[in-house]
Design a protein that fits this description.
heterodimer; A: 96 residues; mainly alpha; 4 helices; 61% helix; B: 260 residues; alpha/beta; 3-stranded antiparallel beta sheet; 7 helices; 44% helix; 18% strand
């Protein structure tokens, strides 16, 4: 499995487990590479924060506010993770 | 906008013309595309003191994560929160869950209570999630939302909206604006009920720098989260127009100072 595939699998697991149906139930929704927040029941701003927080933990990154707002789909989340990783590497390189 | 009527126009004509202009504005508003309304609403962020503005945003498809949008904090606490950069927001020992109002099926929403920042909605119902799990989830949310709020504040990207159903002193609102501006905020819009004799839907800049708007109707604290007034969007548009004009004025002034 490539790094990209591993990231996708991880992101899908994060989104799937963090979505709530609004009453606090964590339900097993179907989430795929093309899933979008506006078309996925339960993926609201409450769930979004949980998804972002978990993604930060799992991928050891920190999103900017703008990146958080731009995440509207699984693809957006993958892109934000890639950007945040690049930013983290840039900071670490500059510190050396 | 300059009054196009000459000063000598009869008062009745002036009143009717103003009413007609208001009606036309509202009609134009109704015809604005949903995406335009959503983009407009997305440029504002609620500071409370209820969930009314956040519910208005939600109704138009705007649902950005935000620290204060589902929180009811009175203005004095809000000023302290902003000035102190939400210190303590991320402390788990400051959090607890309380049961909200019981609904027909006997369940209730868990409300999150922070010792410093008051109550906020969790939208999680009793019996549906373990309280300990919910508390840990809400703690994580507060940590992230605090960070986001402070970053947005410093960036000056948004105009903050504070609406007050109960009377609030001008000094308190000025204090809030001072606290926000010190941290980098672009503008504060204070929406309050029009007093007797005041025209609803007016927007102006106070001497202290707060953008003030009067509205005809606000939801009470126990009336749920329905924003009923049709004047919300026109008020937001007027606010944006005012800020844009001021920004153009600043830019033009800077250009003239530089180039003569």
């Amino acid at each position: 499995m490539s790094y990209a595939d591993a990231d996708l699998a991880e992101v899908l697991e994060i989104v799937r487990t963090q979505i709530s149906d609004g009453d606090g139930h964590l339900k097993d929704v179907q989430v795929g590479p093309h899933s979008r927040a506006d078309l996925t029941p339960g993926w609201d701003s409450i769930a979004m924060v949980n998804i972002l927080f978990r993604a930060e933990e799992v991928f050891d990154v920190e999103f900017t506010s703008l990146q958080m707002e731009q995440v509207r789909s699984v693809a957006d989340l993958l892109a934000a993770i890639a950007e945040a990783r690049w930013a983290r590497r840039s900071v670490r390189s500059a510190a050396v | 906008m300059a009054d196009p009527l000459p000063l000598a126009a009869p008062p009745l004509v002036r009143v009717l013309t103003r009413k007609t202009r208001t009606a036309l504005t509202l009609a134009r508003q109704a015809l604005a595309s949903p995406s335009a309304n959503a983009e407009l609403l997305d440029r504002f962020e609620s500071l409370g003191d209820s969930c009314e503005f956040a519910s208005l945003q939600n109704r138009h498809g705007v649902d950005q994560p935000s620290f204060f949008k589902w929180r009811g904090l009175r203005i004095s606490a809000l000023v302290a929160a902003v000035a102190g950069e939400l210190e303590g927001a991320g402390q788990l020992d400051q959090l607890s869950l309380v049961r909200g109002e019981t609904i027909a099926d006997g369940t209730a929403e868990y409300m999150l209570l922070h010792a410093l920042y008051g109550h906020s909605h969790t939208f999680a119902m009793t019996g549906a999630i373990e309280p300990e799990v919910l508390l840990r989830r809400e703690h994580r949310r507060m940590v992230l939302l605090r960070r986001k709020f402070l970053e947005d504040l410093r960036s000056g990207r948004r105009t903050y909206v504070f609406r007050s159903f109960d009377p609030v002193a001008d000094d308190d609102v000025e204090a809030l604006w001072s606290a926000l501006r010190l941290k980098g905020a672009r503008a504060l819009l204070w929406v309050r009920l029009a007093a007797p004799g005041e025209v609803a839907g007016r927007v102006w800049r106070s001497p202290g720098g707060v953008i003030v708007a009067t509205i005809d109707e606000l939801s009470g604290y126990h009336e749920g989260m329905e924003a009923r007034s049709p004047l919300w969007l026109p008020i937001l548009r007027q606010t944006e127009s005012m800020l844009d004009r001021e920004q153009r004025g600043f830019a033009e002034g800077a250009r003239r100072r530089r180039y003569g």
